[in-house]
Write a structure and sequence with these properties.
- With about 270 residues, this protein is of the alpha/beta class.
- The chain folds into two domains: about 190 residues, 3-Layer(aba) Sandwich (Rossmann fold); about 55 residues, 2-Layer Sandwich (Gyrase A, domain 2).
- It has seven helices and 13 strands.
- The strands form three sheets. It has a six-stranded parallel β-sheet with strand order 3-2-1-4-7-8, with helices on both faces. Strands 6-5-11-13-12 form a five-stranded antiparallel β-sheet. Strands 9-10 form a two-stranded antiparallel ribbon.
- α3 links the parallel β7 and β8.
């Protein structure tokens, strides 16, 4: 059995701010809890994608011998780089709510320049966008861990077979009520073991394609960010901050989001 794990930072236990010390240590702790549970269930191979910032948070030397690691940036599919139909299931560890979600811990959607993303009219965060990619390759998401805002946003979007672990409750963007780290990691380990042991019963995350594929609308935080992002071929400008793109596949959606994130970030240099 093969498992793919994407590990982010904002939904990790014990953290409340991007300026925290020992971010890597906390990310590794939640990740290793998930790995331990999966191995106990009989998983034979694990691929981890370090999915926070420039992807240089997880130290390869702390991982078991049957775990490979994607590290660094950029990558074509960033948070789900390496995820193919060869995998039996996926875990999303340390995830968070999309930009603008009240009490979302360090809320954003891929980049601080993106404010809202919809696919065929439905708002998606990073979990849903990556889940759609996984589902398009026939891989179910078995476990998602993160803050309560993530749970409230994503629970009803994913199949009932997807397990969640709530790691903390946001008070504001950079403040949270933290749950005991040892208790959270034990729950991660237990649920990882449970879902991995019934991988064949898990349902994939999917959304029906329209005749022309998927209609993706992206709202940027300001007009300058949209000015840059609108330079992409095939992009339609709907308003000052809103763009539209028709994607043929989930793979294309992720490449689109990554490209818009990079292009729109150029606006930061123009503002100084």
């Amino acid at each position: 059995m093969k498992l793919f794990i994407s590990v982010d930072m904002e939904g990790i236990s014990g953290l409340a701010n991007w300026q925290e010390a020992e971010i890597s240590k906390h990310m590794e702790g939640d990740l290793l809890a998930a790995i331990e549970g999966a191995l106990e269930a009989g998983v034979e191979y694990i691929l981890v994608a370090d999915s926070h910032g420039r992807g240089m948070n997880i130290r390869p030397e702390i991982l078991p011998d049957n775990v490979d690691l994607y590290r660094g940036y950029p990558r074509p599919f960033y948070m789900v780089e390496g995820l193919t139909s060869d995998f039996d299931l996926a875990f999303f560890i340390g995830y968070h709510a999309p930009a603008g979600f009240y009490t979302g811990q360090m809320d954003h959607t891929f980049s601080t320049t993106l404010y809202r993303v919809t696919v065929n009219g439905e708002e998606f965060g990073e979990a849903e966008l990556n889940g759609l990619f996984a589902g398009s390759h026939g891989v179910p998401v078995g476990l998602i861990t993160g803050d309560r805002a993530l749970f409230e946003f994503s629970r009803n979007k994913f199949p009932e077979t997807t397990e969640f672990v709530v790691t903390k409750e946001g008070v504001s963007k950079y403040s949270a009520k933290l749950y005991p780290v040892r208790r959270v990691r034990e729950e991660i380990r237990e649920k990882a073991k449970i879902v991995a042991s019934k991988a064949s019963e898990l349902k994939i995350f999917s959304r029906e394609k329209q005749e022309e594929g998927y209609t993706v609308e992206i709202e940027l935080v300001d007009t300058l960010s949209a000015d840059f992002a609108s330079l992409m071929p095939g992009m339609e400008r709907l308003s000052g901050r809103k763009l539209k793109y028709r994607a043929k596949s989930a793979d294309e959606i992720l490449k689109l989001i990554n490209s818009v994130s990079i292009l729109s970030s150029a606006s930061r240099f123009m503002n100084h």
